[in-house]
Amino acid sequence: MKEVTFTVLENAGIAPRTFWMKLSGDTSGIRGSGEFVQIALPGKFLRRPISVHDCDWDTLTLVYKVVGEGTEAMSAMRPGDKLSALTGLGNNFDIDACRSKALLLGGGVGAAPLYLLAKELCAQGKEATVVLGFNTAEEIMLEEDFANLNARVHIATMDGSAGTRGFVTDVLRIKNLSYDYFYACGPRPMLRAVCGAIKGPGELSMEERMGCGAGFCYGCTIQTAGGPARVCADGPVFKKEDLIW
Ligand SMILES: Cc1cc2nc3c(=O)[nH]c(=O)nc-3n(C[C@H](O)[C@H](O)[C@H](O)COP(=O)(O)OP(=O)(O)OC[C@H]3O[C@@H](n4cnc5c(N)ncnc54)[C@H](O)[C@@H]3O)c2cc1C
Ligand code: FES
What we know:
The chain is of the alpha/beta class.
């Protein structure tokens, strides 16, 4: 774990109440996709966990949705502002678990950490099919970014205003997608439905309210097949067979 002071380079709205923030700073503590950073915000005792959306040797990109005061404060940040974050938190998606064809399923802002994962998979010469679910067409984000990686992208919207009407699992039911391993991130009901719909192996990034974010307070504990596990330190990525719904 490393505490880094980043500088905001860009902080732009990409969907209603959803922002894309690019930061410059020391990213040497970040190992790969699946990890998150813990962001310090003025007046907030607890840092806020946000997934690594993209990362290179000196920039870190986050995609976040404004849901409360902490993320509201992030949305007000301007280029040049400083932001303190703990990096190197959480485990990574296992890109070697996929033989050649990966299915990536994201619900809402849960699409964010799948982008770096798709980049890593494509860099290994693997095929990525991405299914993104939203409530409505105006919430769609990152579709082009995934497409620019040469991933095949499918959209589901609850109101049918774009793509397949319904959930990401409706896309699985209707389209004949070919994959040997899946990765998913999104709201808990979506992850549960994905585990029910897909017979094959895969892994899922879980979200829990966090305290320390570094394994000390046990505030983020969930029950798994192997006993209690901390989402921040033992996850956030868990194998499908380890999760108990
Ligand atoms: C490992 C991890 C990675 C995450 N990655 C992202 C990301 O990439 N982009 C993003 O937008 N958000 C992400 N989140 C969720 C993000 O941490 C919360 O939305 C944020 O902390 C809310 O802070 P706030 O001060 O704005 O809202 P708060 O005032 O803290 O909360 C506002 C509302 O959001 C709910 N809430 C807050 N945190 C969570 C949570 N962790 N799970 C479920 N409900 C919550 C609260 O119950 C409350 O109803 C992630 C969470 C975890 C645990
Ligand atoms: S948040 Fe403290 S142990 Fe996970």
